[in-house]
């Protein structure tokens, strides 16, 4: 009798949420959304479920729907950095860099210790061609983790945009030393060595590395400038 009664009770909003999180972590995104929706139906103010639903939608590249879920979470609990950060990520994927920057600024104001915010805000600033500010954010990331290869790479791109080829080459060397599979970094390194410093031999070697790693854009430079 007691077992029957226990199973006949409907699950609580927390139980539904926890099952949704389990499915989300197992990459069963659509199923997880069903559980988050049931939790939200029980408690429309359940901000963690709204935020998690947004993450599941984001993982399915349903960025507009994700933004709706994150916005609802923000409206209910505006003091949490997470939905601002997550909504910023959705805007970043849509290349809505201004909107992403606003959200990252809000997230950073709520929790300035979150290094991921600086990295993603740097990407938004790079997209907006605000290179000096982007370099500042990537430097914050690198101070916390000098082995962050993508921060080195995107710092290099910002330095190139900021007309600093010397700094960019240093950052690109750091990038390929940390990640020798980054064909785009070898490509930028080769192009910069050749165009800014006239270093044909080194530049061609790096362009050939880029091509060998599948970065096909290098082929034009190799054909034009690296013929034997």
UniProtKB/TrEMBL annotation:
Keyword field contains Repeat: yes
GO cellular component: a single term: cell outer membrane
Keywords in alphabetical order: Repeat, TPR repeat
TPR repeat coordinates: 13-46, 47-80, 81-114, 115-148
GO biological process, one term: receptor-mediated virion attachment to host cell
One Pfam family linked to the record: TPR_16
Keyword Cell wall biogenesis/degradation: no
Alphabetized PROSITE patterns for the sequence: TPR
Coiled-coil annotated residue ranges, if any: none
InterPro entries: TPR-like_helical_dom_sf, TPR_rpt, Ycf3
PANTHER family: TETRATRICOPEPTIDE REPEAT PROTEIN 6, UDP-N-ACETYLGLUCOSAMINE--PEPTIDE N-ACETYLGLUCOSAMINYLTRANSFERASE SPINDLY-RELATED
Name this polypeptide is given: Tetratricopeptide repeat protein
Organism, scientific name: Cecembia rubra
